[in-house]
Amino acid sequence: MIKQKKLIHIFILLCLDILSIILADVTGVWMRTNPYFFEKDYALVAHGHYYEILTLVIPLFVFIYYIFKLYKAEIEIDVFNHIGKLFIANIIGAVVLMSITFIAKTGWIFSRFILFFFIIFNILYSTILRGIYRKILHIEYAKGKSVRKILVIGTGKLAEMYLDTIKEYSSWGYKTIGVLSNNKESVGKRIRNVNVLGTLKDFYDLQNKHHFDEVVIALHIEESKDLKDILKMCDKEGVRIKIIPGYYEFLKLSTSVEDLDGLPILTIRGVPLDSVLNRAVKRAFDIVFSLTAILITSPIMIFIAIGVKLSSPGPIFFKQERVGLNNKTFNMLKFRSMRVEDPNKEKLQWTTENDPRKTKFGSFIRKTSLDELPQFFNVLLGDMTIVGPRPERPYWVNKFKEEIPEYMLRHYAKAGITGWAQVNGWRGDTSIEERIKCDNYYIQNWSLWFDIKIIFMTIFKGFINKNAY
Question: How far is residue 234 from each of residues 156, 239, 404, measured CA to CA in Å?
């Protein structure tokens, strides 16, 4: 229910922003062509392209709003911070729009007056429309409409976690009336500022008094003996039931339920890229992107190849065994940035800031990440992907999997050229634990938009990094 409300809320915000963009465009053109504001001789005659370009403006601005997190499912917001984000997003949108039309040589002439007032009115309309929408929600919930009264059963850690989380959705009309305990000692106490109203024996009396819309069962697995009786009581009163599994600690990544001829099977640690469609979309994106990147960077790669050959004797490319998808190894390509040495010795060494093995030219291409360019061929061959966890050598994988919890979960996806950890600064000789958190977060929350966001972040701040050595 909460997820559905979030999606509806985000969809409404999206529709309001599209309406705001259209109104701002129409207002700007109307003001520029109105003789009341300008003399007739200076009024624009041809202004149809200002409406045609909405097909570009709307998706562009919606994407920029998304990047600025203006579609977060929140009702309570900081108004001034929100307006500030809108202002910056509109300025960036205008600059990107002008750049696209200039590069594409559309021939459209833009009035600075229209562009200026488009930004002003777009911010104004968006603020007003979003404000009216949120005000309507506040009034609706204040009157008690759409408010869902919740009873929590359980007083342990699960119940505490639920009560902490549901507080964030109080503005969405979720109201926790109280808690029921399975022991008398807890009655009268408070858990996370919510009263323990009684025990399971008091359920019917409390239901007659409060008329709960929803019962959330948050019992530890050892307390599940009472589950059958609780379900019977809820069914008798026609109250909707939600259960937080007592084995929640095992459900770290996405979990799904599969129906096998009527037998429910819980799949633990399922991820978005388990889907055949998602894998196909990601692979198609990888092929198109890597081919384009190879064509664009081929002159740079030729220059680097010459520089590597002149900097020290040895091969141009450096091949190294790395661990990728499903723990399978592959040979990752790089431009060689170090002097040639014994492979058995090299595989046990970790690159450091002042590593004496690096050449001067090698230090440059490592610092600028240009040594990674040959990995586009790894992507084309299917060993790697554009965005994913950075691959590690077998020796370090075997070492880290014994030391770092959930380290091996990063191999649920293909290894990538860039990743969520890298654009957040966790590359080179930095915290492995934080890197793994980022990698696992990416795998759990993968989407094509997430990949595109990481690629943009890599372009703007990921190539040159103080930890890349």
Answer: 21, 5, 43
